[in-house]
Amino acid sequence: MTPNQLLDKGLAELGLDLPADTRERLLAYAALIAKWNKVYNLTAIRNADEIITLHLLDSLTVLPHVTVDRIADIGAGAGLPGIVLAIVRPDLEVHTVDTVQKKVTFMRQAKIDLGLKNLESHHVRVEQWQPAKPFPAVISRAFSDMADFVRLTDHLVADGGHWLAMKGVYPHEELAQLPAGVRMKEAIALRLPGAADIHRHLIVLERN
To answer: EC number(s) of the enzyme (predicted)?
Structure first.
């Protein structure tokens, strides 16, 4: 199965009907990751099919639950899920943040190559980042611990805003260690096309 066919099959399983130019941008982004990976080691996943499944489609599983107009992706790495969201939601203002210069350089090049006017990438420690205004949602796919995610990004979340934590198996222990003043609003089980044996959850957090 070609990457194009794999993407189309995954989109159909997710119930996403994306325009042809959006699908082409997603494939171009996957190709960029594969190309840069040869030199910059952006991600441990190098196989073209796995980039489609474990990066693109995995990022797209949260799309129905991103209902805001501005979002910050913290510890974005190669731009996951932030760049994927920016591609499929041109109306969404996306800010990606990472402390690794080469990853931010890649994301900025991806913005140019893919023509993403709604994307800004920041090379900064998240706790030191001071955007002009807070966000209605911050998301992360890479933070190992939700308590740290909340603690380091508390200043970024607007009143009434949410943290969106992309996790694997249901994170019982991490939820038990959330800081005071923050609670789980919702836990959403996600199904990853082409990887039925892989568990995915989106944990939505809010202030008490």
So the answer is: 2.1.1.170
Q: Per the annotation, where are the binding residues?
A: 75, 80, 126-127, 141
Distances (CA, A) of 171 to 52, 57, 85, 145, 201: 25, 21, 24, 9, 9
Say whether pTM exceeds 0.90: yes
* Interacting residues of 99 by C-beta distance below 8 A, sequence separation 6+: 75, 123, 124, 125, 126
Query: With the CA atoms of 167, 85, 80 and 188 taken in that order, what torsion angle do they form, in degrees rounded to the nearest 10?
Result: 0
Q: Give residue limits of the domains in the chain.
A: 3-207
pLDDT tens-digit readout, 14-71: 999 999 999 999 999 999 999 999 888 788 777 888 899 989 999 999 999 999 999 9
Give residue 125's identity as a one-letter amino acid code.
Answer: R
Residue 193 amino acid letter: P
Enumerate the known binding-site residues for S-adenosyl-L-methionine: 75, 80, 126-127, 141
Q: How far apart are CA 69 and CA 92, in angstroms?
A: 5
Class of domain 3-207: alpha beta
